[in-house]
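Now read the record:
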Amino acid sequence: MYMSLVKSILKTVSNYPGGYKTIYSLLYENGFNSKESETSIKGTLSRLKKKGLLSNKNKTWRITPLGKEILLQKNSAIISFAPERPKIKQVKTTMVIFDIPEKKRKYRDWFRHELIEFGFDFVQQSVWFGPTLPKEFIIYLQKEKLLQYIKFFKATEDDLI
């Protein structure tokens, strides 16, 4: 989930410069998955600082001009289909299994991020369970030649063992 965590941190810091605790709480308020540990977020902040994408002065994280440029590139490279995470519990009826190759890593990371944003739960590596996906999303997957790496199944939570 490298791309989604980096993108989420860059977006958060660009909108709300602040200390670590502020960034951490905003990530979770905005629906970022709690599977990411505090250590992951601290490590990612540190790496982004070393790459010159963020600065930290007086314990306040800020996005740098280079960070803004990268964020714009990430936003323009691949379309995001997922709406803001819903606050209500969704009916989950879709199992997604995928094996997107390493040479398409940016799409693999993007796909995981989109599944999280759609409200999917991680079952195991490359196996996710969640609500029905919108038709436009499936059409985009086909356009980007990704459907050959993805399988969709209808299921209910009772079907999962």
About this structure: The mean pLDDT is 80. The first helix runs from residue 2 to 15. The two ends are 26 Å apart (CA to CA).
